[in-house]
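pasting Ras-related protein Rab-11A for the record, 177 residues
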Amino acid sequence: EMSEEEKIAYVFKVVVIGDSAVGKTQLLSRFAKNEFCLDSKSTIGVEFQTRTVSISSKLVKAQIWDTAGQERYRAVTSAYYRGALGAMLVYDVTKRQSFDHVARWVDELRAHADASIVIMLIGNKADLLDSRAVPAEDAVEFAETENLFFFETSALSGENVEPAFLKLLQEIYDVVS
Ligand code: GDP
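structre below
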């Protein structure tokens, strides 16, 4: 009997990027552990979390990297992007500035990551209905122009988190297989 480790067909490195406080760490723990941690930043220093899922009947281990706060100091280095097959580019639907910075993050990816990297644009905190500052249509338009996939999510409620990660992993699979 093979162990789960032996059955894993692929390991995909995915990086999570975007402005500070948009919910990157919470999205990651929602997907990796199905947790939302009220005491945020408890994962500081942790470099990545993993979750193994089935994609096209193959076991794929997603190794998802968190900047652990480094984005505050613009210190996200090329080592962070090295080998990444996918990126979750996160903004906060209640913070216009975090969406205005998305183009800069795309430039950063195009400069440091592999040309074939699959990018998923994520508008997070979609649960905050009363404080929305970014219409979904703006993001849809940007995503179409830049060839990105797009989902709105809530790491708090969990809404769309699983579909967004699974779509990214499926698209990576289609690129590498
Ligand atoms: P990071 O700096 O991008 O890693 O952001 P964090 O994951 O630390 O989240 C920043 C803050 O936003 C924390 O107070 C979280 O509790 C909160 N937060 C994260 N995701 C959501 C969400 O989907 N909805 C709401 N309402 N708050 C969220």
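The mean pLDDT is 90.
Residues 20-26, 40-41, 124-125, 127-128, 154-156 surround guanosine-5'-diphosphate (CB under 6 Å).
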